[in-house]
Design goal:
This protein is mainly alpha-helical. α1 runs antiparallel to α2. A hairpin with a 4-residue loop joins β1 and β2. The chain starts with 16 loop residues before the first helix and ends with a helix. The protein has a single domain, classed as minor pseudopilin epsh fold, CATH 3.55.40.20. It contains seven helices and three strands, in the order ααααβββααα. Bound molecules: fe (ii) ion. The site of fe (ii) ion (FE2) has 7 residues, from α1. Fe (ii) ion binds next to α1.
């Protein structure tokens, strides 16, 4: 059984409490559906193989939907720490230095990451670090589960589902939403993931 997590979110700049509440409600649905699928899987083994296949495939959608949302909301927890300066990453941090090494500068990394976030479609923009190759990757995840990179560490996740921004920013408001997303990040969370 999975339990819905709670997040100590600060008052966010540019993202309304109503928007966050609606989003958290959807997260709760993924946790609930994940538990429903886990329970039904047990009853299907040895029975209808098509039903089992559908439930098994569906599991990745609900599981990742839950997990990615946890990673997403945690990035705003404890905001406005000394590491956060208007959304900027401390240039002296290990993460900033690694990003600079690969992308030339943190600004250039952000530009490239934002471009992934602006891709058409619904899903997630994810910054990964492949520890084996010592290399960052940007990935686009369709829905919650198609396009995940195996055995690479998730450093930053950006929700690009319409529910994350349309109600507040409108269908053409993706860029404004990404601005607000960056503004509220507590970079010490991502630094910890990376280190
Ligand atoms: Fe979401």
């Amino acid at each position: 059984m999975y339990t819905e997590k709670t997040f100590a979110l600060p008052s966010l700049e540019g993202i309304t409490p109503e928007s966050v509440a609606a989003h958290l409600g959807l997260y709760a649905g993924y946790v609930k559906n994940l538990n429903t699928l886990l329970a039904s899987k047990e009853t299907l083994v040895g029975g209808d193989t098509y039903a089992l296949a559908e439930v098994t495939r569906r599991l990745a959608f609900e599981y990742d939907g839950a997990r990615l949302h946890e990673l997403y909301f945690m990035q705003w927890e404890g905001g406005s720490t000394p590491l956060t300066t208007g959304g900027a990453l401390d240039a002296a941090s290990t993460l900033a230095q690694a990003l600079t090494k690969q992308f030339g500068s943190v600004e250039n990394w952000e530009k490239q990451f934002r471009a992934v976030g602006m891709m058409r479609g619904i899903g997630w923009a994810i910054l990964y670090f492949d520890n084996e190759a010592q290399m960052f990757h940007h990935a686009w995840i369709d829905q919650h589960h198609q396009g995940l990179l195996a055995n690479a560490d998730i450093i930053l996740v950006l929700d690009i589902w319409e529910h994350a921004f349309v109600a507040q920013f409108g269908t053409a408001g993706r860029g404004a939403y990404i601005d607000a997303f960056f503004k509220n990040l507590n970079w010490s969370v991502m630094e910890k993931r990376f280190v």
